[in-house]
Specification:
With about 400 residues, this protein is α+β, with helices and mostly antiparallel strands. The protein is about 50% helix and about 20% strand. The N and C termini lie far apart (about 55 Å). The structure holds (R)-mevalonate.
Length: about 400
């Protein structure tokens, strides 16, 4: 039998036979996970932390974040609290839809206008075939065409309503491509697939009184840092990593496709021809203003969301009725909050001060010690401001000598 044909228990038994020690997993969970992916043998756990006070468009949200990186949830909270003191952020999601691509090969007698006149009819046929999507407010909105030598590039805009929509868009594209390849002037279909080009854009803006972030001098330093990120790629990519710290954590917690967002962010950050920071901060009078636009092809239904009870729990925390546009607003705000906290730290004390305090929990987790010993070592690391694995080992020895 092939590996993929085995049950998850049989796969685990095979690994155990090879001498690999596996963590225990409850059979029901194992079987649920086996429905989501292939060749499943176990699970990976992530802590879910909360931002309890994110004020977006006048509404307060509790935002779950799933991340293993210490400081990320603390940073999001720090940023969120500053936003809250300043009346929160304004955010807007322009959910036009996703672009799909159909690429056809033409014959020498291909007539572009003949194909173009069929677009309204093709859209109607697709929307009839995928009527359930139309019922939820989505559907095919537009088809555009350009030609390069013998290749015909079709861009199909599909509104996936409240879902992320990758599967639906791909089905629609294949439906349209099959119809198109039978038309006169078309030699063959090359491919039909969703494009991850930036779409479903969300913009968030905030205006902070400088006295809520440590004064005008700090605001000016943040603005300067932000300016550096517009031209210096080394800073820009790190700035964007800080934004993605929060965005990823919220995407993972809500069962969304973080890979699609990452890929689209790379394109958006390079859109001027120069890779740049996705966020901008500038001083205006007594205010530090920040803004961030992100491509957030996300959903609140469909995909694995309904199938995963851990994800469903996070939606209950967010408020069950959250719309996809609202969730996009929340996620972009978390990105800007993480960005602000990072900029504040690096333009004042430096990142390590707060960071290492939280990182020390990782150092302690690596020790083979009792919970009580670990707590004492954690205290000693913080008291002495020594944040290294060697220091953790040294303090453990001290604790044990005293016992
Ligand atoms: C670390 O995970 C993220 C930061 O480096 C982001 C930044 O420098 O803006 C702190």
């Amino acid at each position: 039998m092939k590996f993929y044909q085995l049950t998850p228990e049989e796969r685990r038994a095979l690994l155990t036979k090879q001498g690999i020690k596996l963590d225990a997993i409850d059979p029901a969970t194992l079987h649920q996970l086996d429905q989501l992916s292939e060749n499943v043998v176990g699970q990976l756990r992530l802590p879910v932390g909360l931002v309890p006070n994110l004020l977006v468009n006048g509404q307060r949200y509790w935002v779950p974040m799933a991340t293993e990186e210490p400081s990320v949830v603390a940073a999001a909270n720090h940023g969120a609290n500053i936003f809250s003191k300043n009346g929160g952020v304004t955010a807007q999601s322009d959910r036009q839809g996703l672009d799909g691509q159909i690429i056809l090969q033409s014959t020498s007698d291909f007539e572009p206008t003949a194909l173009r006149t069929l677009f309204p009819q093709l859209i109607e046929q697709a929307n009839h075939e995928f009527a359930s999507l139309v019922k939820y407010g989505g559907g095919v909105k537009r088809i555009e065409m350009r030609q390069k030598a013998e290749l015909i590039y079709l861009k199909v805009l599909v509104d996936p309503a409240e879902a992320m929509g990758a599967n639906k868009v791909n089905s629609i594209l294949e439906f349209l491509a099959i119809k198109m390849e039978k038309l006169p002037g078309i030699k063959a279909k090359l491919f039909a697939i969703l494009s991850n080009y930036p779409s479903q854009l969300t913009t968030v803006r905030v205006k902070l009184m400088v006295n809520t972030i440590g004064g005008l001098a700090v605001a000016n330093r943040i603005a300067l840092l932000s300016k550096i990120g517009q031209t210096d790629v080394y800073r820009a990519v790190t700035n964007n990593k800080g934004i993605m710290n929060g965005v990823h954590a919220a995407l993972i917690a809500t069962g969304n496709d973080s890979r699609a967002v990452d890929a689209a962010c790379g394109v958006l950050a390079s859109q001027s021809g120069q890779y740049a920071s996705l966020s901008k901060w500038y001083v205006q009078g007594d205010n530090l203003c920040g803004e961030l636009t992100l491509p957030l092809a996300i959903g609140t239904v469909g995909g694995s969301i309904t199938a995963r009870s851990d994800v469903r729990q996070n939606y209950r925390i967010l408020g069950k009725k959250i719309t996809t546009a609202e969730l996009a607003n929340v996620i972009a705000t978390i990105g800007l909050a993480n960005n602000l906290a990072a900029l504040l730290a690096i333009s004042t004390d430096g990142i390590q001060k707060g960071h290492m305090k939280l990182q020390s929990r990782n150092l302690v987790a690596n020790l083979s010690a009792t919970t009580q010993e670990k707590e004492q070592v954690l205290q000693l690391l913080t008291q002495n401001r020594e944040y290294s694995q060697a220091a953790a080992v040294k303090f453990l020895q001290q604790v044990r000598e005293k016992e």
